[in-house]
Write a structure and sequence with these properties.
- By secondary structure, the chain is mostly helical.
- About 45% of the residues lie in helices and about 5% in strands.
- It contains six helices and three strands.
- The chain has a three-stranded antiparallel beta sheet, with helices on both faces.
- It is globular.
- About 40% of the residues are buried.
């Protein structure tokens, strides 16, 4: 339980660099459809959702998953996003991604058209999970769910996963200021990213 998690999320980082280019209107050859690219970039988040999915889920081939997340630590850690197409949840890259998405909606929300609501829903999905992680146990921040070694050795749908759902946390005796700080940034960014507009 005391292991620190470090992971790069190439898919999510790529998504945000792409998302940033779309919103900045990066010049390119041809006639790119930025509206469609933005919609698909935000839709990607729905495909990575963990937990009990809402009825308005646009990606209908996904179903509820990870409903026992946190049970090994006797807490509810359902929700959040899977990392980079895996079945593990790494809170550090998830928090960074949420911070960037919040910042993007704050800076460019007026140019996002109807996708602003989907972006805000993506932010809310992550921050609702972070609140669980921060409040489930006093003086403890849960920072990940799933065994990355086991998970990376198999490829299966989240709905069918049977790998260990190991729970990782940080605390005063097991510090992790990087993930704690980024989680705080995601929660702070959420306040502006969701409410501005």
């Amino acid at each position: 339980m005391g292991k620190r998690i470090t992971s790069s999320s190439p898919c999510l980082l790529f998504l945000f660099f792409f998302f940033s280019l779309v919103l900045l209107g990066c010049p390119s050859l041809g006639h790119p459809n930025y509206k469609d690219a933005l919609a698909k970039s935000i839709l990607f988040f729905e495909g990575q959702r963990s937990g009990r999915l809402p009825t308005g889920q646009q990606i209908t081939w996904r179903s509820n998953s990870g409903l026992s997340d946190g049970s090994l630590a006797h807490v509810d850690l359902t929700g959040g996003y899977y990392d980079a197409g895996d079945n593990v949840k790494f809170n550090f890259p998830m928090a960074y991604t949420t911070t960037m998405l919040s910042w993007g909606t704050l800076e460019y929300g007026k140019r996002m058209g109807p996708e602003i609501q989907n972006a805000r829903a993506a932010i809310r999905w992550a921050t609702d999970y972070f609140i669980k992680c921060a409040t489930a146990t006093p003086n403890t921040l849960y920072v990940g769910v799933g065994d990355p070694t086991t998970d990376h050795k198999c490829w299966e749908r989240p709905e069918d996963m049977d790998t260990a759902r190991t729970v990782y946390s940080v605390s005063a005796s097991k510090p992790g200021s990087d993930v704690a700080g980024e989680t705080a940034a995601a929660l702070a960014g959420c306040v502006h990213g969701i409410s501005e507009g």
